Amino acid sequence: MRLHQASRMVMESESSSSIFTNFPLISAVIAFAIAQSIKVFTTWYKERRWDLKQLVGSGGMPSSHSATVTALAVGIGFQDGIGGSVFATSVILACVVMYDATGVRLQAGRQAEVLNQIVYELPNEHPLAESRPLRELLGHTPPQAVVGGLLGLVIASVVHLIVRLAS
Questions:
Q1: Is the pLDDT of residue 11 over 80?
Q2: Which residues contact 134 (CB under 8 A, 6 or more apart)?
Q3: What secondary structure letter does DSSP report for 62?
């Protein structure tokens, strides 16, 4: 009977919480928004042009995917502790996302560069000569993923500190 009461209390407390007080989710969303915003400035610094498409694009410095999943995992760690299955799941998710960004997606982007160059060099009468170029900026270099992860860690820590000071 006690187990049933305890699980009911947990379910009631979880259902009464709001999405606006979900600390890990808020941390992840803020980390994503900041990482994407930073990309606009890093593009301007490197290319001396403003590119607002970077706000929604993939690839570039820092990795918003890494920032998001790291902030989520750290936020869960702060909120629920690091001994539970939810934290373990979020850490594994973060590792898979970062591995994918620096491996599969990075290589797919490099292949797209080569294919675009091949299509560019085709004669005008070739059927593929007028095809749309493939997106080349898909993945991240390891430094971009590491900086994104560090950004996520910092954002979740700052949000956690603000929440603790406010309560």
A1: no
A2: 112, 115, 116
A3: S
